[in-house]
Amino acid sequence: MIRMVVFDMAGTTVDENNVVYKTLREAINQAGFAFTLDEVLLAGAGREKLEAIRNVLAMNGVEDETLAKDIFTKFLALLDDAYRTLPVFEQPHATEVFHRLRDNGILVVLNTGYNRQTAEALTQKIGWAQGIDFDLLVTASEVSRNRPEPDMILLAMRHFGITDPLAVVKVGDSTVDVMEGRNAGCGINIGITTGAHTIDQLRTVSPEYIIHSLTELWPIVASPLAPVNQHI
To answer: Cross-referenced Pfam families, in alphabetical order (predicted)?
Structure first.
């Protein structure tokens, strides 16, 4: 029986038009680089943002922790400016799906590679409230190891006293999301094509399902013994 669904935020449940990764690219390129958005998404999607910067720089053979931290500081300042005027929306049907899960006794957890300040700014702009629309928010700020390590999911499990990872579903729009769920031992790991990575990119990490809309989630959760790969 499924007890909890863990959703990624940007690209999965939140539509912010890739502003975070566009801002990340801007901060990196202001340091003298010329990365494309696709390159930033490939190396950084789903990851804690300082780690994302390290990974993007490594694509150019650069390993400079001081530089990475300087870019991260710049990124946070640019992102704060962007969020003051940024229109942020939920991905289609996200609230509806959250409420259906909660109405059927299934916990809804949001987790993200953002820090808590950024993640809470997103939920507040959309109007989501913990205890009403979702049950818990876990961010990169709360764990020492980030995606693809399973620590955020394991923290959510401990919070609710869930000991069997097979009772947990992970949903995300990046390969790192799927890897996080698999590393946590989640019973079902689902890629969704509404965000960072394409269906072909998601296939490289072999999720049990790939979906194109959050509305496709309920039949999977309601029938967890359905044959795997039927949506890939």
So the answer is: Hydrolase
CATH class of 4-16+88-222: alpha beta
* β-bridge pairing 168-172 and 107-112: unpaired
d(CA 206, CA 182): 10
| Phi/psi at 190 (5° precision) | -125, 125
Extents of the domains making up the chain: 4-16+88-222, 19-85
Q: Is the Cβ–Cβ distance between 44 and 140 less than 8 Å?
A: no
Secondary structure in 3-state letters for 59-125: CCCCCCHHHHHHHHHHHHHHHHHHHHHCCCEECCCHHHHHHHHHHCCCEEEEEECCCHHHHHHHHHH
**pLDDT (tens digit per residue) in 35-44:** 999 999 888 8
